[in-house]
UniProtKB/TrEMBL annotation:
InterPro entries listed in its UniProt record: Metallo-B-lactamas, RibonucZ/Hydroxyglut_hydro
Protein name: Ribonuclease Z
Domain Metallo-beta-lactamase as annotated: residue spans: 17-207
SUPFAM superfamilies linked to this entry: Metallo-hydrolase/oxidoreductase (SSF56281)
Record organism: Pontibacter aquaedesilientis
Record-linked SMART domains: Lactamase_B (SM00849)
PANTHER family reported for this sequence: ZINC PHOSPHODIESTERASE ELAC PROTEIN 1
Amino acid sequence: MRIKFLGTGGAFDVDYLNSAAMLAFRDECLLIDCGFTVYQTLVQKNLIHRVQYILLTHLHNDHSGSLANVLLHRSIVDRAAPPTILYPSEQFKNQIYEFLKIQVKDPDKYAEFMPLEEFDGIKAVDTYGQHSEGLQSYAYIFEEEDSRIVYSGDLGKPEVLFDRLSRMRSLPTCVYHDITFHTENTGHTYYKKLLPFMNGVEMFGYHCDPTQNPPDNPIRLVFYQKELLA
Ligand SMILES: [Zn+2]
Ligand SMILES: [Zn+2]
């Protein structure tokens, strides 16, 4: 299992590109989130042909804004088989479908859709309303035999995710969590709220402007880990 980030910024941190990642998992290649900078990054880094599966944390534009571009590129430029969009619930599938329908008319022409539960080893954690009021969002947990990767998505309240983790079998776990350095930003997790959960896991922060990182933050930022960047 290997994760490479395509960007680590927050919604307005365009210098650091939208937070998204490519995950090599069980011999497949997954794209996690597809914000408005992701299409360009995938093309520039010559990675777009590798995307087999797409998994979205939520439908804010910095997580879904170039989904249609990626699908159209695969069909029109690459003339390749459509990627498969994994969905954790029927309701979220319908939201993705309606979102795409406005842009590409017939989403089924450009993407396959597959329930996440049919993909072995990935669990969705429903974080509805915990990033933005009334908004569906998910965190995801990826498990192989000997390791686990956790991707928070945008999440203002980390408790539900760590509660779920605490009830899972013990396994070397690496948590990638969104992070904010401003208490008034309630849609994301203030770094001090993550400190109680650092025991027994590796943790990295993303979805932020790394130049704002306070000196007393012990959580390493993905942005500074060269081996985690695509
Ligand atoms: Zn975001
Ligand atoms: Zn968001």
